[in-house]
Amino acid sequence: MKKKIVFVFNSANDTRCMKRVEEFVEHGYEVDVYAFDRGSDVVATSENFEVKILAKHDISMNYLKRATIIRNSLKKLFKQYQKEDVIYFLFFFDVAFIGHMLANKPYIYELSDMPYSGIGNSFVRGLFEKADRRVIKKSFLTTLTSEGFIDYLFGERRPDNYVVVPNRVDKRLLDIPYHETPVDMSHLRFSFVGGFRYQSTLDFIHYAAKNFPQHTFTVDGNIIVFEKELRELVDAYPNVKLNGIFKYPDDSPGIYSRTDIVISTYDADSINAQYAEPNKMYEAMFFHTPIIVSSGTFLAKKVKRLGIGWHVNTSSEKAVIDLINGITEEQLGTMRDNCKKIPVEETVNENPRLFEYIEHHL
What is the pTM of this model? Predict the structure, then answer.
């Protein structure tokens, strides 16, 4: 009999976390799902399970206060399952770090981000890296959305208890109709899709909207950071639009049907961005939509190698202008064709090794 999996999200509206739970449900596991509401979150929903809110903490709170809320909530939750035969599945570093010290059962840790990578003080950053390595080593299993993370944290001395689970698109998208629309080169449609939190994305939209009033720049998703600045851009430039939170995966085909080019620029000076492999790349492949990413990243190399988009230094207004001026109809057509050449199974979420590991080691 399969063990129950108790999932804990650090955000109540994280589509990647929801996708992972759906995957376990599909494989016949019983699940309980909990999440933290970060103040601006709309709680995600599913026909297969309920997301129960553990507590609310605003992302503007200082880290110590947030950590206390997380600790108290997890302590209470773990006590609830003390007599049950379960495995915890912990998402994000803060939940996993605190959780691994309190857990009375085996846990799986999903590493999709290294939030401490932006800390300038190398000594302090090193302490967080050491803590992350400990969480991984102590886990029953760690899942990583990019192999780059394990390379950065361990180099050649990797542990055995990890599986790479690329952040591919939800397989339910295969059952939702999608219709490509013609490209009008005199009115290109750029979209950012997902959680908005990077200065580089804000800079790109600012420079692009300012210099190309004939094109539109749309943000679909949760604005995690820079809401004030984005709304100022909307007020300043009529070609900038905010559509707000959408339902994933149901609304994704509609969003991409009105998108000619998807924006996925990360802050390239961040260690995290240099190693991450974001979901947007797989969405671009799946929906045959060329992508713009930040120069100097792991993602830029992959996008260039596959011929599915461009990379740009978003801190340079001239670089953004030159990039958009250089986009041709022939380029767009070639990049769309390159996306179509990528087998669908390489873009859709399927992780047999994850379930093989769990079933083999229990």
Answer: 0.85
